Amino acid sequence: MDSKHSHRSEETKKAILTTAGKLFANKGYDAVSMREIAKQAKCSHTTIYLYFKSKESLLHQLSMPSLTQLKLKMQEIVQSNTLPPEKKLKEMSNQFIHFCLNNKNLHTIFINAKSTRVDEQKPELEINQIRLEIFSIMKNTLGECLSLPNDDQLLAYSRIFFYNLYGILSTYSYQHEPTEVLLERLIPTFGLSVEILILGFKANLKLVEGEG
Amino acid sequence: MDSKHSHRSEETKKAILTTAGKLFANKGYDAVSMREIAKQAKCSHTTIYLYFKSKESLLHQLSMPSLTQLKLKMQEIVQSNTLPPEKKLKEMSNQFIHFCLNNKNLHTIFINAKSTRVDEQKPELEINQIRLEIFSIMKNTLGECLSLPNDDQLLAYSRIFFYNLYGILSTYSYQHEPTEVLLERLIPTFGLSVEILILGFKANLKLVEGEG
Amino acid sequence: MDSKHSHRSEETKKAILTTAGKLFANKGYDAVSMREIAKQAKCSHTTIYLYFKSKESLLHQLSMPSLTQLKLKMQEIVQSNTLPPEKKLKEMSNQFIHFCLNNKNLHTIFINAKSTRVDEQKPELEINQIRLEIFSIMKNTLGECLSLPNDDQLLAYSRIFFYNLYGILSTYSYQHEPTEVLLERLIPTFGLSVEILILGFKANLKLVEGEG
Amino acid sequence: MDSKHSHRSEETKKAILTTAGKLFANKGYDAVSMREIAKQAKCSHTTIYLYFKSKESLLHQLSMPSLTQLKLKMQEIVQSNTLPPEKKLKEMSNQFIHFCLNNKNLHTIFINAKSTRVDEQKPELEINQIRLEIFSIMKNTLGECLSLPNDDQLLAYSRIFFYNLYGILSTYSYQHEPTEVLLERLIPTFGLSVEILILGFKANLKLVEGEG
DNA sequence: CATGAATGAGTGTTCATTCAT
DNA sequence: GATGAATGAACACTCATTCAT
Predict the structure, then answer these.
(1) Eight-class DSSP state of B174
(2) Domain regions of chain B by residue span
(3) B68 to chain A, closest Cα gap in Å
C-alpha cells in the first residue's frame, strides 16, 4: 500500500521536474508560471509545493542534475582515447553551448548567485563547484592541445577561450528562436571559432617563444 | 526663479536615468519595475512618467546617447591615418569594452535582442541601427587587418571577434570592482585576445586558401 | 467533502455576479472597478479572476442568462394562440420592463452600445444577437397589431415603440424603491403608453395611406 | 493695469469653460482629462484649479448656463405666436434631444445627483429646479395640443411623452458616432414619434371621453 | 496671475503562495 | 497524498490634485 503511494508520489515529482525543465528551457524561468507547470505535469499547482519549497527551489533542484550530467559528459570526452585533444575541446565546447542554450534558466542561477539568501547557500556552493570543475576540465584539455603545462599562460589562454563561449551564449541566450533551430544554424560558426582560437594560441605561442 | 525649478527637474531626470541604468544592468530590463526605479531614485513612480513616456522609452533614452558617443569614437579611430589597422582594431575593442563597462553594464541592452521586437516602432530600430553601424565599422577594420573583402568569410570572422568582446563583457559586467581598476588590470588580457584572434584568423585563412 | 468546497465556490461566484450586476447598473460598466466589486462581494479582487476571465467576460456572463430567459418568455408569448396581438405586445412589454427592472438594471448593458465594439470577438456579439432577436420578436408582433408587413415603416414604428420602453427603464432604473412595489404602481401607466402608441401608429397609418 | 490682468483672467476662464464644454460633449466627462482641457485651452492644467475647485465643479459650472439656455429656448418657443402648439412641442422635443445629446456629460449630473456631497448641494438643487421647469413647460405645451387642463390625465400623458424622449436619449447617448451626424440621420424619426404620440393621445382621449 | 514638479490613489491583470479540506 | 479556493503583492500605467515658486 505504502509502496503504491510513494510510487505515485515519485512519479508526480518526476513529472513536475521534467515538465518544469522543459518549460524553463523553452520559455525562460520568468515566463513560466507554476500553474502552467502543474497543468502540463497533470497535477494541481498546489501539489508542486508538496515537493518543492518554492519556484526558485524547483529551479535549483532542476539545475543540479543537469550540471552534473554536463560534467559527466565532459569527463567522458576527456577519457575518450580515440579523439585528438583538439576534437575533444571542440566537442566540449559544443556540449557546453548546447547545454547552456538548452537551459536558458541556468543563467539566472549563475548570474544571480549573490542574491541567494544566506540560509540556503549550500546548493549555490555545489553549483559553483561544478562550474569550476567544468572550467578546469576544459582548461586542461586546452593545455593538451597546446602542449602547455598548467601555468599562468594557460590560464590566460583559457580565459580567452571562455570569453568566446560566453560571448556566444550572451549573444544567443535571449533569442526567441527555438534552441534547436538556432543551434543547427550556428554550430558551424562555433566550431570555426574554436579552431581559430587554437590556431591563434599556437601562433601566439610561437611569437612568445621566439621572444623568450 | 525658473532656474530653481528646472534645476530640480534636471536632477530628478538624471537620478531616474542613473538609477534605471544601474538597475537594468544589474537585474535585467524585465526584472526591474518602475516603482523600484522610483524608490531608488527617490521620487514617486509617477514622476518617471513625467520624463519618460514608458518603461521602454526610458530604456531607449538610456541607451541612445551612450551608443551614439561610442559610434563617434569608432569613426574617429577609423579616420586616424597614423594607426595601422591592427592597432585600430585593438583600440576599437578597448573603447568598446571601456564604454560598455563604464556605461554601467548597458551592454545587456546593447547585446540583448530581447528588447528588439521586430514588429515594433522606431525607438528600438534606432538602437539597432547604431549597433549595426558599430558592428559594421569594426567588421570593416577587421577586413583591413586581414586584407579581406566584405564577404561571408569576413562576416563569420567578425562574429567570432564579437563573441570574444561580448564574452569579456558578460564576464566582467557583474563584478563589483570599480570599473577603472578592473580595466587597468585586464586590458592586457583583452589586448592579447585580440592579437590571438587575428593570428588565428590569418592562420585559418592560409588553411582555407591552401584548400581552395 | 467536496461539497463544502464547491458550495463555497458557488456562493462566491454568485456573490460576485450579484454585486457586479448591481454596481454595473448603478454606476455604469466603466465606472466600476474590479476591486470595488470584490470589496462589496467580500472577496479579494483576484478571486474574481478565478471565476471570470476578465472584466468584460464578467459583464458578459452577467447579461447572457437573463437575456436568454427573456427571449424564451417572449417566444412563449408569441406562440400563445389565445391572445390577440395587441395583448401579446402589451404582455411582452410588461415582461421586458419587469425583466429589466428585476435584473437590477442590466438595461444599461442591454441598451448601451458602448460594450459592443464591432471589432471584438464573440461574447458581445452573442449578447447583441439576442438583443436583436428580442427586438425582432416584438417588431413582428407589432406588425401583427398593425397588419403591416416587415418593411421600413414597421421598422420606424418599432423603433419608436422601443424608445418608449427604454425611456421607462431609464426613468425608473435608478429609483431606490423596491422593484415590485414600483411595478405594481406603474404597470397601468406602461400599459397605457402601449395602448397610446398603438392608437398613434394606427392613426398615423391612416394619414400616410390617405396621402398615398 | 488691474483691468488688463482681470481681462486676461476672464479670458482664460472662458477658454477653459469653452474647451471643457466641447471636450465633455464630444468625448464624455470621464474620457476627458484635466491636462487635455488645459492643453487645448492653452494654459497649464494647474491653472484650471484657480478657477474651478475640481473637475466635477467644472462640469457643474459648465452645465448650468447650458441648461439655462435650453430653458430660455423653450420659453421662446412657448411665446412664439406663429407656431401651432403641435409644432411647438415638436420643436421643443428637438431642442431637448439636441441639447442632451450635445451635452452627453450632463447625464452624469442628472443621474448621479444623489452622490453629490452635502456641503455643495446648492448647484444640484438649481439644476434640478431647471429640469422641473423644462418638464413643466413641455407638459403645458402638450396640454395646449390636447386642449387638456393641467390635471392628472395630462400628467400621465406627459410622462409617456417623456418616456419617449428619454428612450431616444438612452438609446443614442452612448453611441460613439459624432452627435451631428447622428442627429441629422435620426431627427425625422424623432419627429415622427412626437406626431404618433399626439395622435395616440388624441385617440385615447376620445376613447376615454366615450367611456365617461 | 500662472506654472512646472511631484504625488497618492487608482486601473485591470498576473503570479507565487497558503489554507482548509 | 493531493486539491480547489482564496489571497496579497506586484506589474505598467493614468489621473485629478497639490505645492513651491
Answers:
(1) T
(2) 1-52, 56-211
(3) 21
Task: Output the CATH code of domain B1-52.
Answer: 1.10.10.60
In sequence order, the 6+-apart residues with CB closer than 8 A to the CB of A52 are: A16, A58, A61
CA-to-CA distance for B191 and C13, rounded, in angstroms? 67
- Residue C206 has a CB neighbour count (10 Å cut-off) of 11
Q: How many CB pairs under 8 A join A and B?
A: 104
CA-based torsion, D83, D89, D93, D96: positive or negative: positive
Band of pLDDT at residue C121, cut at 50, 70 and 90: very low
CATH entry 3.40.630.40 includes domain B56-211 = no
Looking at domain D59-211, which of 2.40.110.20, 1.10.357.10, 1.10.3720.10, 1.25.40.10 is its CATH number?
A: 1.10.357.10
Chain A touched by B198 (CB under 8 Å): yes
Closest by CA to D143, choosing from D156, D130, D129, D128, is D156
Of the segments B35-39, B108-112, B169-173, which one has the largest average pLDDT value? B35-39
| Structural contact between residues C172 and C109, judged by C-beta atoms closer than 8 angstroms | no
Q: Closest residue to F2 by CA to C1' distance? A: A47
Is pLDDT at C56 greater than 80 in this prediction? yes
pLDDT per residue over D140-160, tens digit each? Answer: 999 999 999 999 999 999 999
Distance CA C154, CA A31 (A): 57
Q: Report the CATH architecture of C57-211.
A: Orthogonal Bundle (1.10)
Q: Please report where in the chains the cell 479582487 appears, as a residue.
A: C45
At position D26, the amino acid (one-letter code) is N
First to last CA, chain B: 75
Nearest amino-acid residue to F18, taking CA and C1': D46
The pLDDT, as a whole number, for residue D202 is 96
For cell 474647451, what's the residue? Answer: D19
Nearest chain B Cα distance for residue A132, angstroms: 14
Q: Which fold has domain A54-211?
A: Tetracycline Repressor; domain 2 (1.10.357)
Q: Give the per-residue SS3 of C6-53.
A: HHHHHHHHHHHHHHHHHHHHHHCCCCCCHHHHHHHCCCCHHHHHHHCC
For chain F, which bases have at least one atom within 7 A of a protein Cβ? 1-21
